[in-house]
Write a structure and sequence with these properties.
The complex is a heterodimer of chains A (about 230) and B (about 325). Chain A is mainly alpha-helical and about 230 residues long. Chain A contains nine helices and four strands. In chain A, helix 1 packs antiparallel against helix 2 and helix 2 (about 60-85) packs across helix 4. Chain B has helices at about 5-25, 35-55, 60-75, 90-100, 105-125, 130-135, 140-145, 155, 160-180, 185-210, 215-220, 225-245, 255-285, 295-310. The longest helix of chain B is centred in the last third of the chain and has 33 residues, at about 255-285. Classes of the chains: A mainly alpha (about 230), B mainly alpha (about 325). The interface between A and B is large, with 70 and 70 residues.
C-alpha cells in the first residue's frame, strides 16, 4: 500500500464506483509551500537584479524601480495561481513532493477555483496550518472556498504486479510478495537479499516446477521479480 | 478466478490505457476524438477493474496500480466545467454587475461602518489634536503649519513612474488584504474598512485644524472617491465570504461557500484594473499644481460615475 498517504477521502466516480483520494497532510503541504516560497524569493531577487541591470545600462533608474515594483507584485500574488493554472494544479513545490490540486471529485479544477484558492493565501499563512491539521481532508481556507483538495500523486516506477504465483498461493500471498518487491529498494541490501532468498526457498518448497526458472547465480531480488512478473504461465 | 490469471487477462487493457494517458498528458493538443473515445472506454474498464480488485484482491500490486490509474484517468478526463472563463465583454457586461449587485447589502454595511469609523476618527482628532501628530509625524505637521501638505513630496521626490506603480500595487495589496481577510469570518474586511475610515477621519480633522483641509480635499478629489469605493467594494465582497462561513442557508455550507467565493472573486477581478488607472491619476494628476481643482474634481466624479455605471450596469435585467 502507499505509505505516504496521511488519509483518504472516498468519492463516488463514474458508475458509482468508490474512488479513494489520497489526501495530503499538513506536513507535506507546508513543505511544498516552503519550496514554492523559496522559488518566489529567488524569482524576486532575479527580477530585482534584472531591473537594476536595466536601470544602470539604460540610465533609466526610476523607471526600472517602477518596473521592479510591478514585477514584485505580480510574482508575489501571481506565482501560485499562475503556475497551478499552467501546470494542471501543480506548483513546482507540489511537483517536487508529488502533490496535486484536484476538485472534491478528483477532477481537474477550473481556472476560477485555482485563482480563488490562491487569492486567500495571505489569510491561510496565518490560519491555514491549524485548519489543515483539524480537518479530515486537510483543507485550508482557500480549499474550502474553491472546493478543492490536495492529493498525493503516485510514481509508477516501483509498482509490481505479479502475473504468476506458485501453485497454492492466494492473493494475500501475492500481495505480500509484491509489497516486498516494492519496498526492497528502500531496505538494507543484506536484509533485502536475505528476505528474497527466504522467499525463493519458500517458493521452491511450495512449487518446485514454478521455481525451475530460478538462476542462483543472479541477484535474488531480480530472480523473484523475474519469476512473478515475467513470462506466461 | 485467481489473482494472477485475472492480472494476465486484464493487464493489456491497463497497459493500453496508461500508454494513451501518458501520451495525452504529454501532448494534450494532439489527442484526437478517436483517442479520447478509446481512452474513455478503457477508463471505464479500469474503474470497474479497480472496484473488483479493491474488494476481491485488496492490498495487491494490481490494486495499487489500478487505484493510481483510476485517479490519473479521473483527473485527466474530468474537468470542473462550472468554471467557464468568460470573455472581457461577458465579464464586465454581465458577470461583474451581477456579482456586484449580489453584494449590495454588504456594500451598504461597509459604507455604514466606514462612515462611523470616519466620524470617530475625526472626533478623536478634534478632541485630541495630538493624535494627528502621532499618525502623520512631526515633520508633516510642521509642514502644515508652514502651509504645505506632505503630499507635495509625491512629485518632488520621485517621478510618476515610481509613485504610480508604488501607489497602484499598494492599493491593490490593501484591497486584496481586505478581500481575503473577509474569508476569515469577515474579520480582515472589517479591519480594513474600520481602519481606513478612522484614518481618513483623523487626517481630515487634523488638516482642518491647521487650515489645510481644502488643499487635502483638492489633492484627493481626483482619485479619492473611486479609491474609497474600490476598497469598500472589495472589502464588501470579503464580507460576503465571511457571511457565508458563519451563516450558511438551507444548502450545504460547502455549496454556499463555493458560490460566495466565486462571486467575491468576480468582484475582486472587476475592481483590480481600476487601481492601475487610479495609480496613474494619484501620481500624475492629483499632486500637479497646474491642474485646476475643478478639473480634478470633475475627473474624480467622472471616474466614480463610470465605475458605478459599469458595476451596476442598469441595462442588465
Amino acid at each position: 500500500m502507499d505509505d505516504d498517504v496521511s488519509s483518504a477521502a472516498t468519492v463516488l466516480g463514474l458508475d458509482n464506483i468508490p474512488l479513494e483520494l489520497p489526501v495530503a497532510g499538513a506536513g507535506s503541504r507546508a513543505l511544498s509551500a516552503a519550496l514554492d516560497y523559496l522559488i518566489v524569493g529567488i524569482l524576486t531577487i532575479l527580477w530585482g537584479a534584472g531591473c537594476l541591470a536595466l536601470g544602470i545600462a539604460a540610465g533609466v533608474g526610476w523607471w526600472a524601480l517602477g518596473l521592479f515594483l510591478v514585477g514584485f507584485f505580480v510574482i508575489e500574488y501571481g506565482y501560485f495561481a499562475g503556475v497551478e493554472i499552467a501546470r494542471e494544479g501543480q506548483t513546482f513545490g507540489k511537483w517536487a513532493l508529488g502533490l496535486r490540486v484536484v476538485t472534491r471529485d478528483g477532477a481537474r479544477p477550473g481556472t476560477a477555483a485555482l485563482l480563488l484558492r490562491n487569492a486567500v493565501r495571505s489569510v491561510d499563512l496565518i490560519v491555514g496550518v491549524p485548519l489543515m491539521a483539524t480537518d479530515a481532508l486537510a483543507r485550508r481556507l482557500g480549499d474550502r472556498l474553491a472546493g478543492t483538495l490536495v492529493i498525493h500523486t503516485h510514481a509508477p516506477a516501483r509498482e509490481t504486479v505479479a502475473r504468476r504465483t506458485p501453485r497454492g498461493w492466494d492473493a494475500q500471498d501475492a500481495a505480500l510478495l509484491e509489497m516486498f518487491l516494492r519496498r526492497a529498494p528502500d531496505m538494507d541490501v543484506w536484509r533485502a537479499h536475505r528476505l528474497a532468498e527466504q522467499l525463493l526457498e519458500t517458493i521452491q518448497a511450495d512449487d518446485p516446477e514454478f521455481a525451475a526458472g530460478i538462476d542462483r547465480a543472479r541477484d535474488p531480488i531480480e530472480n523473484l521479480r523475474q519469476l512473478v512478473e515475467g513470462g506466461a504461465a | 478466478m485467481d489473482y494472477p490469471r485475472f492480472v494476465r487477462l486484464r493487464a493489456a487493457v491497463w497497459d493500453g490505457f496508461e500508454e494513451k494517458l501518458r501520451a495525452a498528458q504529454r501532448r494534450p493538443r494532439q489527442v484526437r476524438h478517436d483517442d479520447l473515445e478509446t481512452m474513455a472506454f478503457a477508463y471505464r474498464q479500469v474503474l470497474h477493474d479497480h472496484a473488483l480488485v479493491a474488494s476481491r484482491f485488496p492490498g495487491t500490486g494490481a490494486a495499487v496500480r489500478l487505484r493510481r490509474l483510476a485517479l490519473q484517468g479521473t483527473h485527466w478526463l474530468h474537468r470542473d466545467t462550472k468554471d467557464h472563463m468568460p470573455g472581457l465583454r461577458e465579464f464586465f457586461g454581465t458577470r461583474f454587475p451581477l456579482a456586484f449587485r449580489a453584494h449590495a447589502l454588504h456594500l451598504v454595511a461597509a459604507v455604514a461602518l466606514f462612515s462611523t469609523a470616519l466620524v470617530f476618527g475625526a472626533a478623536l482628532a478634534i478632541v485630541q489634536p495630538g493624535a494627528g501628530t502621532v499618525l502623520l509625524g512631526r515633520g508633516a505637521v510642521e509642514d502644515m503649519r508652514r502651509g504645505h501638505l506632505w503630499t507635495e513630496s509625491l512629485v518632488s521626490t520621485v517621478p510618476p513612474a515610481v509613485s504610480s506603480s508604488g501607489i497602484a500595487t499598494n492599493n491593490m495589496s490593501v484591497a486584496m488584504t481586505g478581500w481575503a481577510g473577509g474569508a476569515a469570518l469577515g474579520l480582515g474586511a472589517l479591519y480594513v474598512i474600520l481602519l481606513n475610515g478612522f484614518l481618513l477621519g483623523l487626517i481630515l480633522a487634523t488638516t482642518l485644524h491647521y487650515g489645510m483641509a481644502g488643499a487635502l480635499l483638492e489633492f484627493v478629489s481626483a482619485h479619492g472617491p473611486l479609491e474609497i469605493t474600490l476598497i469598500l467594494t472589495t472589502a464588501a465582497a470579503g464580507l460576503g465570504m465571511g457571511h457565508a462561513l458563519v451563516a450558511a442557508e438551507d444548502e450545504p455550507r460547502r455549496v454556499i461557500l463555493a458560490r460566495a467565493g466565486r462571486e467575491a472573486l468576480i468582484v475582486l477581478a472587476g475592481c483590480l484594473p481600476w487601481f492601475v488607472v487610479l495609480g496613474l491619476v494619484e501620481a500624475i494628476v492629483s499632486p500637479a499644481p497646474g491642474v485646476p481643482a475643478g478639473l480634478k474634481l470633475a475627473l474624480g466624479l467622472g471616474l466614480e460615475t463610470t465605475f458605478l455605471l459599469l458595476a451596476w450596469n442598469p441595462r442588465l435585467r
